[in-house]
Structures
1.
Amino acid sequence: MNKYNLYHGNCLDILKTLQDNSIDSIVTDPPYGLSFMGKTWDYDVPSVDIWIECLRVLKPGGHLLAFAGTRTQHRMAINIEDAGFEIRDMIAWVYGTGFPKSHNLQGAWQGWGTALKPAMEPITVARKPLIGTVAKNVLAHGTGALNIDGCRVGTEGGTYYVPTGDKGDVGQFGGGIKDGAVADAGTGRWPANIIHDGSDEVLGVFPSAPGQQGDLLSHDKSRQSPNGIFGAMGPAKDHKRREEQDKSAARFFYCAKASKADRDEGLEDFQKEVGVFFQTGNGASGKPSSIEQSRGPCAPRANNHPTVKPTDLMRYLCRLVTPPNGTVLDPFMGSGSTGKAAMLEGFNFIGIEREAEYIEIAKARINWTLLC
């Protein structure tokens, strides 16, 4: 049975108590350095010293996924790199909801403002340096590679179970895959560095684009990619059906922002609070815009953390970078979304949180997963 440990305190102090090379992955939503809603914990991005400790506790080849704000992503990535990590990529989580925190001018300059509408959050993808080759590192430590088959994307944006062995198993990195998915190795699309929320606003910018990724398992060998960079896609036996499903938006995993139900699962005995909750994103000032003021207070919520990430998104990210039975660390746990996701995926979890008000919320949300 998977286990979890939660620590209350400064993450730099607590990280120093963890053993070298003991963590399989780090998936975290750290402070963005935007002073969001006037919260003192968001005054700056994490320091190089914190990321150095994260590097130390990770196994060789272990991955770090760290959310950031678009305005301070560069500072986040530089600190991570300066700590000794290799920056491997950046995942963009794109969404339709969000309000521009703009000062709109009047008079002769009416129609001009000071901010764009927030529509994405970057996720830095970093890796602790390998020992030897990727293959040797994976064999020795179970880390260093991404769970591609466990995160392949279906035509509707969900993740598919893609067997890779003769007996239908999913190989070394097949843990935590959703039940009920198709068992056709040519169905799932290679996971991309874009994740979207499936909203009409986001889908509207994706044109219909059949054929952008070739049929790499087609019997017509001339149509195959010479290097297979998109992975196995399967033959297009029904061309009309393939065109209907082959929309650009369906190539990417999608996940909406956290719902009230998602936030409050496991918190039935907690007092619900009514307040104005703000959308995260670029330029968040901590002050409601005129649009937000007109919306009034949100529905009462037991989880009062202002930047809760959706469980489905965190499950996907944990599954992408964590080997079976591995341990996920979140040094900036907040209300426990990473821990909830890690437990649902069958991983162990270690969470660290400085703010006392969120510890009990995180514990209750994670305990809820043990009843599922």
2.
Amino acid sequence: MNVSRRNFLKGAASGAAGTALAGGVLVGGARADADAAAAATAASGQVTEPSYPFHGARQAGILTPDPAAKQPFTCVAAFDSMADSQAGLTDLMRELTGRARFLTSGGAPPDLGVGQPPSDSDVLGPSVPADGLTVTLSVGSTLFDDRYGLADSKPLNLTPMRVFPNDSLEPAWLAGDLLLQLCANHPDTIHHAIRDITKHTRGGMALRWKMEGYNSPPRPSGTSRNLLGFKDGTANPTGTTATSLIWVDDPAEPAWARGGSYQVVRLIRMLVEFWDRVSINEQENMFGRRRDSGAPLDGTSEFDTPDYAADPQGTVIPLDAHIRLANPRTKATADQRIIRRSYNYDLGVDENGNLQAGHVFIAYQQDIRRQFETIQERLVNEPLVDYVQPFGGGYFFVLPGVRDAADWYGRTLLA
């Protein structure tokens, strides 16, 4: 190869994300790719639901009836709680519940009269459509410090996000007391929702960092592609296998936490300009899949199961290929699998003139240590690390669902 990987990385790593300025302000902010993805999704006929139920034992926005047909747009936004007491935190949770309940159901905002600021931004018109919006609320480990008397109620495995070799983490993009994951069928619905929520919770929580993402439609079919051009999430568990890997049911966990889920968010920059200079053979060997079809290198179609037992020396699928390390497909590693709900992002250009794009990795599991961290340990120093730079995110715990109109986020934790 004529391009020096390390020299390229040295330039790109001048601020790994190229985005963390004073106060967390973003450089760039391009939306052209997101708008194009919205048009392409509509043209492709990809099925999107008009609405998802808000009430239930578990929150929406983790599993959809068809995991491959998750809403095309997302926003993950981390907040610091500004509540001065547990009672204040309870009020915040009640307000968040009310806003999420309204926004995910849709309807006409109240008319407050001509002498008052309008109750709604009208970004979506005079009547708010549900537009497939889901609002998923999680809590970070910092919420369980000494501010609210919740230390004894912290989920067993909820900690600050572990720093792995090859990470380039930036404090401005890390952690948070609360995390909102918004998913919807159109980007203006996402904008409207985060704007509405921050308006109604001002004083209760302060925005720490925010990242918007989009999900590409299948091209030409099957699973969506990431910005390295490869299908992403082909091996995502589905059905009863998925549910058996997500929901916390350990009797050692606090009683309130059962039915929730551990969430990992990783903001990962992809060095796409450098990647585009790599031969297709090397790219496919790093992933272990064909770029065009998504098939494993020993198969012919995307959903073929790779046969590692027939290739013990890695002659066909290299031993350090991403799919082989991430999911060895052994009986011993079967319960380490995670449910991914990831998106692409594009922030324009960084201060060095490089494209600033990548991946919003979102994963759910029963146990971060057993699942995500064990997988990540196998991926340390894989060949792909020269082309990706994790720079932000965190570990969070998804609260159990809001069961009915009288319930609210975190009731069993705070009541």
3.
Amino acid sequence: MRILLVRLRQIGDVVFTTPAIHGLRERFPDAHLTYIVEPAAAPVVAGNPHLNEVIVTGGRSGLAGLRDDIRVIRRVRAAKFDTAIDFHGGPRSSLITWLSGAPVRAGYDIRGRSWMYTIRVPRPRHIRPRHAVLNQWDLLGALGIPEPDASRMPAEMTIDPVAAASVGKRLADGGMGASDQLIVVHVSAGNPFRRWPLDRFAVLVSGLAQPDAGRRVAVTSGPSERGAAAAVIEQARARLGTDEARRVLACGEFSLAEFRALVDRAALYIGGDSGPLHIASTSGTPIVGLYGPTLPVRSEPWRSPEFLSAAVEVDGLPCRPCDQRSCAPGDFRCLTWIEPKQVLDAAERLLARTRTVNLEP
């Protein structure tokens, strides 16, 4: 049996399909599983042990991108897939799914595109208080596969040993010793609706670095927002004494594979509800997530509850959750009303619980 999986675009959404990959492998142990993904998110599934093949397409615009998609369509048609599952539901992904020629094609019942599928799953237009993993798993449910358990089928991303070695060297070069405790703080997000103010991050980072000489705080950002990390590092260091300022590390930009390895070395990860948080959730590292327009129940770490997580959010806002197209109050209060002390307190609680667990016989 040959099964084609399609999930384009966002990194976090690709992470949320990895439990489904595991579920398909368990249900069809001898199947050939192929995943189509775009370049930015390809490292998420590149080393997935349940996949036989990863096809990367997109990343180029205009005629070049169209030619890339045509090559992929020819390739999948020649492979003669039995089943194709479109986890995305966008125009390109639905077209690729339809043109794959697979006799069974599962996708969401979206106006204008549902005719391309032989199995159509409803996808409500309103925002549901339900995890994205389960929303995507609905497509597997239509194939008779029961809902997953996060402990047994967590979100997954394999660590690249080459990337791990590179991260270790960069941390050491940046001033981290073998016995130091690493905290990773990611300060950027894909859109302003998920971006906590940089001055708040600076207060948080300085607060994390100050109390313990054995701590090191690595500040990271996305490739399009390198200036955000630099600004937070500069402001945080300015709030600290000379010796304390050295605890805030400037290690440069990390690739997605390196970022996964970096988080695995950390005692704690802090960041907004974006792709890096979901990458962090594929580790066992404790996580403090900042949730603005989104709900934790929809995108919190999908993993065993034995791994610690905390959500920081503003409760009671009538405009939350929102569709992230316009801010009704105009001041992004779902994020700007989150104070650094709330995040710092959540971080210290998780670190204290981690110490307690490590001390238990």
4.
Amino acid sequence: MTTKRIKLIVILILVAVITAGLVAWLGRSKPVKVIVKQVGYGIVQDTVANTRAGTIKACQRAGLSPSIGGQIIQLPVKEGDSVKTGQLLMELWNIDRVAQVELAQSQVKSSEASARQICVRADNAYRESQRLQKLKKQGLASEEAIDKAQSEARAQKAACHAAQANTEVSKSQLEVARAVLDRTRLTAPFDGIVAEINGEVGEFVTPSPVGIPTPPAVDLVDIACLYVSAPIDEVDAPRIRVGMPARISLDAFAKKIFDGTVSRVAPYVLDIEKQSRTVDVEVRFSNKSDASNMLPGYSADIEVILAERDHALRIPTEAVLEGNKVLLLGVDGVLQEREIKTGIGNWAWTEVTAGLAEGDEVVTSVDRTGVIAGATAEPDTQAANDD
């Protein structure tokens, strides 16, 4: 083999090696970008949230309707009006009942006048019997006259008592007439806002038939006191107690979180949905002014705080994989899997009791393609900053 041919072979081998290296370099897998968070200390809470949207409700709300049917003759309020306790909301035709009340009032006055007249006579008869008693001592009055005067005094006294009793009967009849008249008038049982009126002046209203609900004549709502009622899964409900702190969030106030307190845990399970049985939990606003711009019917969510650690080693909950494992970005750029022990936690933070130390970097973007143990990775600083 000539020298020239040997050189050619060497050159071909070098070209092949360089080509193979170039192909390997170009075909190498690029590092996957991951978001990492440092393990640190902070507040960790164990919380329970509602399974379906809750609702803002008024502490007092009443659908009011007259107890009898009739024609509406007066509607002194309109929807949106603020009313006070006892204020007239609706009145039905009641001229006959008003007349009955006036008649009963006249009868009371007549009975009282008659009773005064009779009782004056009784007083006179008593004084007359007393005078005759004095005259008898002086021998100027007979026994027969004294007996007659005393009998008359007793009779007049009994007539006075009867007349007074008759007056009381007249007063009771007046109260009955007023009660019958009140059935034609719908008044506010508490301070509130008129939310809805079903009816107009001149229209007829009728009471709801037994077992058949109908729209109320007037829907009255007290918006001065609001609370949230939300369904909690039956599995979580036994851990909730009245007085526990809670957080309230509303779609209508997306950027605000309100403090609240559990005020009631329903003593029964709702099984409307057989596969999702729930317990109603009510939460009051800790600061009443927070609810000043809210309306009954708003959708709301609650998060009840069951336990809290003020200074716990924690990681974002999204970093925890199945089996209590996390991915760490090693100094060599390779993702490493590590098993940890956890304490309390919620959707945001999870307490770490073993397996990690402060300053370790865990991967939070575990749902990205290619993020698995053993993969080459590099921090995604842009996404971390945006987050």
